[in-house]
């Protein structure tokens, strides 16, 4: 059975999840790796907010 691996946030080397420090650079490994989903969710909300703002401004600004 394969061991679960965690990527180091600094050097991106995959390490065994049981290790406290990275085997390559020696930095502390996080137990809970930050998810990219939260950043993508914020980006999507900001993108659609800007799109709606632009459409409203195109309608409201004098021609």
Number of strands: 2
Envelope shape: rod-shaped
Radius of gyration: 21 Å
Q: Give helix % range.
A: 25-40%
The biggest beta sheet reads: 2 strands, antiparallel
Instruction: Specify the oligomeric state.
Output: single chain
> Structural class per helix/strand content?
mainly alpha
**How far apart lie the N and C ends?**
67 Å
Order of helices and strands: EEH
Sheet with most strands: strand arrangement: 1-2
Keywords, separated by commas or semicolons:
single chain, 63 residues, mainly alpha, two-stranded antiparallel ribbon, 1 helix, 10% strand, membrane, DnrP protein, transmembrane, transmembrane helix
Produce a short descriptive summary.
With 63 residues, the chain is mainly alpha-helical. 40% of the residues lie in helices and 10% in strands.
List the helices and strands and how they pair.
Blueprint lengths: L4 E3 L6 E3 L19 H25 L3
Antiparallel strand pairs: 1-2
Can you walk me through this structure?
The chain is mostly helical. The protein is built from one helix and two strands. A two-stranded antiparallel sheet has the order 1-2. β1 and β2 form a beta hairpin. The chain is rod-shaped, with a radius of gyration of 21 Å. The termini are far apart. The mean pLDDT is 84.
């Amino acid at each position: 059975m394969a061991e679960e691996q965690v990527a180091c946030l600094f050097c991106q080397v995959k390490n065994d999840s049981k290790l406290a420090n990275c085997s390559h650079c020696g930095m502390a490994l996080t137990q809970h790796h930050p998810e990219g989903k939260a950043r993508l969710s914020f980006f999507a909300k900001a993108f659609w907010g800007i799109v709606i703002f632009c459409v409203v401004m195109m309608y409201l600004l004098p021609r």
